[in-house]
Amino acid sequence: MKDILAAHGLTRRDFLKVCGGLAAVMGLGQAAVPGIARALERAAKRPPVIWLDFQECLGCTESVSKSRYPDFVNVVLDMISLEYSEALMAGAGHQAEAKLKQSMADNKGAYVLVVEGSVATKIPSAMTIAGRTSVDIAREALTDAALVIAVGNCASFGNVQAAYPNPSGAMGMLAFMEQEGIDTGKLIQLPTCPVNPIHLTSSVTYFLTYGKVPETDQYRRPKIFFGRKVHDECQRRAHFDEGRFVEAFGSEEENQRYCLYKMGCRGPHTYSDCATVLWNNRSNWCVGTGQCIGCSEKDFWDELSDFYAPMPGVAIPGFGGIRVGADTVGIGLAAVTGGAIVAHLAVSAAKGRLGHNDDGSVTEEKEA
Amino acid sequence: MAKVVIDPVTRIEGHLRVEVEVENGKVVDAWASSTMFRGLEMIVENRPWMDAWHYTHRVCGVCPTPHGHNSAMALESAAGIVPPPNGRLMRNLLECAQLLHDHVLWFYILNGLDYVNVVSALSAKASSPQLKAVQDRLKAFVDSGQLGFLENGYWDHPAYALDPELNLQLAAHYLESIKVQAVASEASALFGGKFPYQMSTPPGGFSSVPHEDQINQFEAKVREVKSWIDGTLVPDLMAIAPFYLDQAGIGQGHGNYFTWGVIDEDLEGGDPYKRLFPRGGVFGAFDGNLSVQQVDQKADVREWVTSSWNTQYEGGLHPWEGITGPDFTGIEGIPEIDRNGRYAWEKSAHMKGAPVEVGPLAQMLVAYLGGPADHPAKKLIDDTLAAIGQAGNPAVLLSNLGRIAARVLKVKIIGDKTLDYVAQLRENMAAGDMNFYTPVPDKPTGQGFSGWDAPRGALAHWATLEDGRVKHYQIITPSGWNFAPRAGDGRVRGPVEQALVGTPVADPERPLEVLRTLHSFDP
Fold first, then answer.
1. Residue A17 pLDDT more than 90?
2. pLDDT digits (tens, 9 = 90+) for A219-266
3. For the segment B50-99, what is each residue's pLDDT rounded down to a tens digit?
4. Which residue has the higher pLDDT, A325 or B397?
5. Predicted local distance difference test score (pLDDT) of residue B337
6. Do B151 and A99 touch (CB under 8 A)?
């Protein structure tokens, strides 16, 4: 750190001033200055990050490479030391594996492990690297990591390859670590498909600043990102509240950006802050142009399909919080305010759009 | 003979093990083994038909757009509907943005380090303050002692041919390209919601209606990427090509090529032979057969499982009858390839009875040889050949060099054309055409097919629907063609295996040249 300061012509006193400025920006007061100084000094050696790919599509690496704030080049050259990444590294074959082995040994107990993809448990050879199964590689790498970040739904919950009948026995990190008896207290799961780079860079920054993982839910998802429902923060929410729904894709109602609930949007069932952080440098998000299929949720491929039929269990405004579902639609509710919505739903049900849900069992925990 | 194993092959999508035999400094035989299986074709069965495209979309996160799009088109084909012209136009824009992102990323991030020596760049005489700043940044990175992802590269390999100054220039553009490909992805997200994995192309067309602010931003982002392609990527190709002309004699392969075609020009009917890059194939190029032939998905496509860890069946099957089921017969963990048995998760796709190479080289070749007289590929290829001193000799492009050049020249064409499609969209909307979506039937029954190339080559989905559910589903990815393991009665090598034969290997410990041939296919 001293060398870096000197290189920039800064004294220790100047450095503490910078820390004071940072504390002010973060609204933390001067008491936080020593902590920030320590965090930055620790960061003089860029923290080692090992990125492992298992059963995946590389979509999460793709997504993270599009991070603009912070810029991905800045992340890789200045903020972290990316020790191993099959997608980016110059070396290949045994040179790549030598780097992995050496880095895991040098940084034992101190590296951040990012996992993209699921491990194959039923057919171990359905996922191998350098003559080893993902189960073996993951067990070793997870055990010696200081922090584990499962990026994307594959690494978190197994994603689409874990959907019925899960031919390879795909498994996410939470389940795998529990099975292997590895402490899940050091695990953060960021299960959208793909991972939102903002979630990843913010998680790493949080860990480096505070020296701990952020508060998580039962699926090890940080509550700062996954504590609220897509529906609660949706730009189209006002239309839902007013009973204005899109009835057909590409329609005038869609042109007006009415609510997509009736088209099957899973926003009311999905915990994520997509509506506020958006995607690809805040360019847009799923509900802006299509709809939500619930990709931050465990087993959403089995639990939340059929994606183009509205799901039951959503409280419609004006009914005093009564949940409307396929079973209850049309039973005396038409008399209540918002009858038009119910009529729409009843018509939908009559047309069979609601009738063939595989599973209507997703429960709502709270609704305004 | 020396056995060289590369596992993992890095800087690719997916997981790949390659083994080659080297004799007298050259590869004499090769085996490519895909080492991952997920089984999406099995998982999508029995799902509601409208949902299927979301599942099969997840095949590839580097080329998601054509997977989602092909799936939607295969489902439309099975359901007997077609998207309206504006729907096709929106999908064109998404596909173009995907290509703009993909080929830039491939040239620098995936392929670049095989030709650009970052360590050499440190000793360059920087010709501008900007390059000096990049050099200082790289020096600081190296001096930190934490080389990270650049460690254990083959930096002192004799096959690196650029001088330090050119290495520095390309290294600077390597770093710039990361932002450029991100901007292209932002264009994708404007109409797709996010990238990877757009949400706006369900069966029927385009789910939303674009707003003027989105179209404006899309156009601005495409212009930014296009100007970088014209001003940086294409000049970089021309700058390094003279140093790597040896690549014109490496990686030839079987000489069979085909494309399903990509980017609709016929917005009403979607005729694949009228696409910007039209459908067609060239078979037996090294025997002098350079005429473009039509391809018939039903008569010409068969998938073999001779060397695949798949449920075994006799001969080759058309995808509508295709069978997917894991049947692993190797040693757990795949520490070596069973060269006489089964050795890959990938099936082997054959066209007209033979393994066939797919990708931008095939697309450009078919456009060059069989496209309309004013097709932009003709002038671009002729100009490029002239610039590298090979005028009138397109055969040098049937090689690693050709694959690299084809990707760059193709994405230049895409950059130009994307703006035409934006203009057409504006025109349609101004004329009152606000039709973006065709209503879909509730519970269709039928058989469907869609072939539309992904960035790395021919991609097709085959869907069979029954009463609104997926009864059967098969996909042949570009890797299903290029990385096919040996198949057929003669156990014929797959295209990449064949292309590897003859690749020089100066040092079996550091098989840089093998990586070059592999990366030229953009696996």
1. no
2. 999 999 999 999 999 999 999 999 999 999 999 999 999 999 999 999
3. 999 999 999 999 999 999 999 999 999 999 999 999 999 999 999 999 99
4. B397
5. 96
6. yes
Q: How many residues does chain B have?
A: 523
Q: Where are the beta strands (DSSP E) in B352-476?
A: 354-355, 446-451, 460-466, 469-476
Residue A52 DSSP class:
E
Q: Is the pLDDT of residue A331 over 50?
A: no
Say if the Cβ atoms of A289 and B105 lie within 8 Å: no
3-state secondary structure of B350: strand
Pairing of strands B280-283, B301-304: unpaired
Burial of residue B379 (number of CB atoms within 10 Å: 0-12, 13-18, 19+): exposed
**How confident is the model over A191-217, as pLDDT tens digits?**
999 999 999 999 999 999 999 999 999
Interacting residues of B108 by C-beta distance below 8 A, sequence separation 6+? B170, B173, B174, B177, B178
Question: What's the order of all strands across the beta sheet hosting A81-84?
Answer: A81-84, A48-53, A111-116, A145-151, A187-190
**Torsion angle of alpha carbons A295, A301, A303, A307, nearest 10°?**
80
CA pair distance B365, B395, nearest whole angstrom: 10
Amino acid in position A3: D
Q: Which two tokens stand for residue B244?
A: 């790597």
Q: What is the pLDDT of residues B213-228, one digit of tens each?
A: 999 999 999 999 999 9
B204: DSSP letter: T
- Cross-strand pairs, B454: B457
Closest CA of chain A from B391, distance in Å: 34
CB B187 within 8 A of CB B221: yes
Q: Match 């095939």 to its residue by tokens.
A: B362
Q: How many CA atoms lie within 13 A of B477 on its CB side?
A: 27
Global ipTM: 0.97
Spatial distance between the Cα atoms of B33 and B20, rounded to a whole number of angstroms = 11
Within the 188-247 window of chain B, which residues sit less than 8 Å (CB to CB) from chain A?
A: 188-200, 202, 204-209, 214, 217
For residues B327-358, one letter each, b for 16 or more C-beta atoms within 10 angstroms of the residue's C-beta and e for the rest, the string is ebebeebbebbeeeebbbbbbbbbbbeebbbb
